[in-house]
Give the backbone structure.
Amino acid sequence: MTSVKSIAAVLVSAGSGKRFGDESESAKQYQLLNGSPVYTWGLKCLLEHPRIAAVVLVVAEGLEAEIKLDINKWITKGLDKLSVTTGGATRQASVFSGLKLLCQPASPPDVVLIHDSARPFITATIIDDVIKCIEKEPACTVGTPVSDTVKRVDDNIIGETIDRTNLVAVQTPQAAWFSELLKAHQRAEADGWVTTDDAAIMEMAGYKVSVVLSTRWNIKITTKEDLRICEALALAINR
């Protein structure tokens, strides 16, 4: 691969968080974690990283103006790097929206990192490791080896025990060379591909995706129990 001169990041924060709670509650990424909204934890890390030159925050339709005001309450550093845009009906569509915004400057980035705002404990070290990988490979994702025994279940009956030797639980951030990920998303839209993450899109487009070992602390908030776990972790991190 050629040398990486410019790096951007897309932080996906447009989800409705239906699994988190009832419709009267804010989505998980807007819940407070140790006093500040969940999405701001990852946003701060991305904005303050010295190798990241631009960050696109993708939010749900109708929230763009509100979030722009809200960000100023919580973040002071790196705001000159930040753009906010509206996402789509799916995570895939929201990432594509962020990529299209990054196309607008005269010189799009060489590399882009995609991160989910519901993973608040991204660190500068994780970002550094991803950048080191993407300097050599076309795409990568962070992940951790699966430690639990995994079984395939049908109608509450175990049908198969799966060998976990080569299994990895995939997280974000995920990274790719910008031009290649953009083309993969364009093809996904044209051909009707439906995927859950950008590693899968790159796989379907024919690229090899490398895995960078992450930490189990880089958990995703999906349920209220996850939020409580993160509250405990946040206290530990801040000690």
User: Anything to note?
Assistant: The longest helix spans residues 224-238. The chain has one domain: 7-238. DSSP finds seven helices and eleven strands in the chain.
